[in-house]
Amino acid sequence: MARRMTTPSSLAVRHNLEKERFEMDLGDGSFAIAEYRLYPGKIAFTHTEVPPAHEGQGLGTMLVIAALAYAREHGLQVIPICPFFSAYILKHPEEQDLLDTASRKRLKLG
After folding, report:
1. What DSSP character marks residue 92?
2. Which of 69, 25, 24 has its CA nearest to residue 45?
3. 84 Cβ partners below 8 Å, 6+ apart?
4. What is the Cα 21 distance to its own chain's centre?
5. Do 46 and 53 contact (CB within 8 A), yes or no?
6. How far apart are CA 77 and CA 93, in angstroms?
7. What is the pLDDT of residues 39-81, one digit of tens each?
8. Residue 55: other Cβ atoms inside 10 A
9. 37, 45, 57, 100: least buried by Cβ within 10 Å?
10. How many CB atoms are located within 10 Å of the residue 12 CB?
11. Is the dihedral of CA 95, 50, 34, 8 positive or negative?
12. Close Cβ partners of 16 (under 8 Å, ≥ 6 residues apart)
């Protein structure tokens, strides 16, 4: 049985407020997700998951980019609990201004 491959250009990130997550419907009954929790003035990104059949296509990165854009647009400080979010922010200094003070210290950014 052939596996349907999904290209990132054919997908859109959707903000699911009810489930507190950013998600991508992968068209095969599965979703790529980035979950969060909101706090006053802050957003904690807790978990990112891409189904194994869709790994390596940049979907996790697309979720992180959309989620960080949301945080920036809404003036929220970011708490990257999820290791994927932490790694992305460490590699992208242009996003580090979003971090809350405790996260900056935890990630050794000052």
Report:
1. -
2. 69
3. 48, 60, 64
4. 9
5. no
6. 15
7. 999 999 999 999 999 999 999 999 999 999 999 999 999 999 9
8. 11
9. 37
10. 10
11. positive
12. 22, 23
